[in-house]
Design a protein that fits this description.
Elements lengths: L8 H4 L2 H21 L14 H20 L5 H23 L1 E3 L2 E7 L2 E3 L1 H17 L9 H20 L3 H6 L3 H7 L4 H19 L2 H15 L7 H27 L3 H10 L11 H12 L11 H4 L11 H33 L4 H25 L17 H19 L7
Antiparallel strand pairs: 1-2, 2-3
Helix pairs in contact: 2-3, 2-15, 2-17, 3-17, 4-5, 4-6, 5-6, 5-16, 5-17, 8-16, 9-11, 10-11, 13-15, 15-16, 16-17
Length: about 425
Amino acid sequence: MANRNNEGVLQNIDWILVLMYLLMVTMGWFNIYAAVYNEEYKSIFDTSQSYGMQLVWIISSLFIAFVILVIDGEAFPRVAWAVYGAFILLLIAVIFVGAEVKGSKSWIGVGSFRVQPAEFAKFATNLAIAKYLSNINIKIDNLKTKLIAGGLFAVPALIIILQNETGSALVYGSFILVLFREGLSGNFLILGLMMVVLFVLALLVDETILSIILAVVAAGSLFFIRRKMRNILAVVGILVAALSFVYSVDYAFVNILEPHQKKRINVLLGKEVDPKGAGYNVNQSMIAIGSGGVLGKGFLKGTQTKFNYVPEQSTDFIFCTVGEEWGFVGSVVVIGLFIVLLLRIIYLAERQRSAFSRIYGYGLASIIFIHLAINIGMTIGLAPVVGIPLPFFSYGGSSLWSFTILTFIFVRLDAYRFQILR
């Protein structure tokens, strides 16, 4: 696979990004060790424990990174559609042959070894979107382009929802941020924010009362616009769309969501108080983070973490360990590292000569950002608990491999930045 285009690849690699990856993976490993620390198993290399297995995932991830770096940079746009199609078929197959874990049928297992295709489908979707939008004939202001680009990430998201893996499906919405970078109108962002507000209101306010409020607002708006037939029809159309959305949210909440998902949303919105049930994870998480104070309790000294008060403390709630043992200062440092990482990726994306590489870079930044926002948000009670790992920190082979592939494809593309990819 190596050819003349790979000559000097080591000189062109952005070592700052690579070193940040290594730093965050190492920090994650030590925090996993702290999260499940037991004096009976003191060795951090003990593969019978999760931290020992995480080291195996790290070593294998470094091998994956090396393989990606020796692949010809031109190969990624060439295989984008094939990789995307293969993962769509794999996601569909998981629905029928996948192993069920904690109510989610999103895993493929061989013996005791399991992987989650939904994690790997992110890089496949990123490749496909970059391939499509980088086509010289594609214009983002074209309706057909918007629909196709949206469909590229909506299709895997819908399939993953059928696997009962709502959290992973939410991440695919991050690709909307890529479309904005490529010229999607800011009106869609305003529309999205309005839909979020309306979504929350639909869950908090009785649908009949909310419908009346929306009708009154629509009627009132007619006094502030020119009452031409076109404007009146626009107001009526917006009202009908808003009402349809409200009733669809109510229908989905009642008929589609699982009981535990409804419970978590109600607790998050303050409609229910259940500190020993649906709200237990978040409640214990906030206690652990709060107990760390300014400077934290110190490495391996987190009592909330050590005595297993926080469920999933080495995976979805790994940030609790950071907050408890390293305190407010440590938490700010970790969040700061993620911000620097995102800014570095964006900087590298903007210097690309190839639209494919730029779009892929923004896709990578968007995925990491959404993971970061939702994961930390759910540990401090600002987002529902949906089972999204913290990139490079949370325990798990699928997550680490996925983010390694996502990151190092971009590292390889950046090393090839002096070429134009199609």
